[in-house]
Each structure stands twice: as structure tokens, then as C-alpha cells.
Amino acid sequence: xxxxxxxWQVFDDHAVPAESGRCFEDLQALALTNxxxxxxxxxxxxxxxxxxxxxxxxxxxxxxxxxVELDRxxxxxxxxxxxxxxxxxxxxxxxxFDPALDMGRPGDxxxxxxxVNLRPAGTAPPTPLTAKSxxxxxxxxxxxxxxLHPQLRLRRDAQLAGFDDAVFAEPDGRISEGATWNLxxxxxxxxxxxxxxxxxxxxxxxxxxxxDAPNQITAPVRLPDLPNMAAAFATSTTAGVRPVSxxxxxxxxxxxxxxxxxxxxxxxxxxxxx
Length: 274
Prior knowledge:
Elements: E1 8-11, E2 14-17, H1 21-33, E3 37-44, E4 47-48, H2 51-66, H3 72-83, E5 89-97, E6 113-120, E7 129-135, H4 149-160, E8 165-169, E9 175-178, E10 182-186, E11 192-195, H5 203-209, E12 216-219, E13 231-236, E14 240-247, E15 250-251, H6 257-268, E16 272-273
């Protein structure tokens, strides 16, 4: 794989050295106000699964966060510029933010810019994970925004308690999502059950939901329902379909025929050229 240029990032039309003064000035708003939105995709040899969904998300979230229309084709051009000459598998993040945003007047932030970063991406199959549940609902759950502190705090709390990650549930016990991933279950009859609760519509989940098979439904899944489930899994751009081996004190098998079918179906989805 060609080396990833860690010291460079595509900021609008320019490839900017990360250590440059201009880069520091332009990114101050991103670091100090933390207002904006992003998407993250896994790119392999110039192609990505769900590329259209990632672009749809950026356009949709820009309307919500900034109240303006994002130029889809120009944004795709920045993505192409960032991965030009890079081979193999990389993680690519597109962040939309307004460098001129004033924390005292966020209503004036209507000129979003595009920042594209690359990072190494692992190729090993994801290992099963364990999760601890917390009563929590993300603000603007349908938007992949930059406000990650509550999620990372609960992830940290889960890890300090001996788990790998956090899962969120509504006050009524309905399970919604993982800290930065979607959560699904396999019912005893093999049906895939997506929890019906406020959650980010992840691109991997949407790709799987678009398939004709296996049988899938969206329905409330509450914490007391967990012992009745045959298996559980996480979905994300980073890991694809990943088994969840335990949620709180309920343990699940790492292998299930419906889970294997999901993994195979996701693997078979063709990537889109950038």
C-alpha cells in the first residue's frame, strides 16, 4: 500500500500541511467550537461501500446543521483528491464545518467548508465485542455531528467497568444504538431485528436493510428482551458486521447462521468507485 500522507489533509481545494500556520488558523473553529458534522468511510483501492449513502448523509446533515445545501460533486472532488495515488485500505473522514463560526453567534455559521483526512485502516476480521448499557439519547440522534463527548465518556465508563463499549437505551428501556455503531439482534426464528428507537441511520445498516434477504424487521427491543434473543451484532463502516458476545450480563454466541448470512451479504455488496 502506498504511504498515507499523514502530514497533509485536503481542506477545500487545497492540500494543506498539517503543521502550517494557515492550517492552524483555519481549524481553530473546529477545535474550539466543535460545531459541524462528518462521515467516515472505508476506502479500498479507490472505491467505498455505500459511497452514495455517505454523500447523501453529508448533504442531508448540512441542511440540518448549517441550513444550506452542500455541493455534492465538489465534495466528491475533494475526496478524490485526498485518495489520489493511495492504494490499499484506508479510513477516510469528511468533516463539514465553518472556520468563521463565532461561538457567540452560531446562527451566522452558514458558510461550511470541507476537510478530508486519511488514516490507516485495519484489515483483520473484527473480534466479538462486549457492551454495557446506559440510559442515554444522543442529541439530534439522526445527525452524525461532532458532539462526541457524551458517547466517548460512556465508552470510557464501559471500558473501566470491563466491557469493550457502550450501548444506549431510552428511559423506557428501548435499546437504540452503540456508542459509534448500530446494533442489531437475531430472533429465535432467525429474523434480523433492528431496534426501533432514536439512532443514527448508519450506512452499513442501511446497506443491509436494502437487501431482500435475510428476513428483517424494525421493532422495539428492550433490555428485558435480551435473554430471548439468539444473537446480537454491531454494524459500522469500520468493522462491517461484528458479533456482540455480551450485553450487560446477557451472553450471546459468536456464530449464528443468520449472522453468517448477514456477513456474507455485506461482503457481496459492490463498492462504488470514487
